[in-house]
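User: Some background: our group keeps a shared notebook of sequences we're curious about, and every so often someone picks one and asks for a predicted structure to add to the entry. Today it's my turn. The entry only has the sequence so far, pasted here. Could you supply the structure so I can complete it?
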Amino acid sequence: MTRTRCPASRRAVGYLALVGLVLMPVVGGAQPKKVHRIGVLLPGSAAGSAGAMEALRQGLREYRYLEGQNVSIEWRFADGRADRLPDLARELVGLDVDVLVTPDGVAAGSLRVATQTIPIPIVLAGVGPRFSLISNLARPGGNMTGLSSMAPELEPKRMEFLKEVAPRLTRVASLRDVSLGIPRAADLMIERTGRWGLTFIAIPVRGPEDIDAAFATAVKERAGALSVANTPLFHAHRRRLAELALRHRLAWIAEDREYADAGSMMSYGAEPNDLIRRSASYVDRVLKGAKPGTLPIEQPTRFELVVNLRTAKILGLTIPDSVLGSADQVIR
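Assistant: Of course. Here's the predicted structure to add to the notebook entry:
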């Protein structure tokens, strides 16, 4: 005798079969892809950090990390205020991120303090050794690795370019962000090197309210040029610094191109967004299980000279062909 199954029963069996197909990968041991969580601490504002943010996203895409798919990024911005960095660092550490990234030495110091009890890996995206974060580039140890910007080591080369443009220059105003509580290694290096016959006048700056007075001191001390470290304070006020340098006729060669774009006469250094993009290779290795302390600090191999001809013209200075021929970009 043939038994006929009712339509409702056939639908129930089909539904159970479909559920079985959906659940089969889970039962079989396959797990959903892990979404890695990255914390990024930037010294500037969200608007001013757009280039850095896209550079990191681009670098992560090269290693198949897509924001919103297999990686989430927690962005934090200090808005040029170094005093905000410790709180932001602790906030990121409390979010249970897998790795932390920063292009700033002051921010990196705050992250290191915040990870003393919870040693989350920290990737440096182009931090200068002036902050004494790493004692051994080959084996950094601890929970830090990444890329160096070599900014202090390049200060003598910047002074060489400056003397080519202004051969009669004798006095340089060196603005020092004393709010950080650390010595500026670039200043110490150039002050020990008297090959250019330059005198450096150290002028302390504690906050944005001191900037105008610092330039007044530079003029009073008969400075003809300016030397400024790339700190959160100075980076946030780079356009104001450039305007004041121009107003007081101070030639200024800065550490990276963002300052030349803002109006400094020249810049020479590693391209910051390129360093941030390349830091993704360290993020990838750390997420795959590498110990940060065993990964050597990478130093930049390509440096960028940017010349702002508009600024030089207003200052009444002629950029020699030897410098223009070496420039990677000329702002006209």
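Suggested note for the entry: Residues 19 and 197 are 81 Å apart (CA to CA). The two ends are 95 Å apart (CA to CA).
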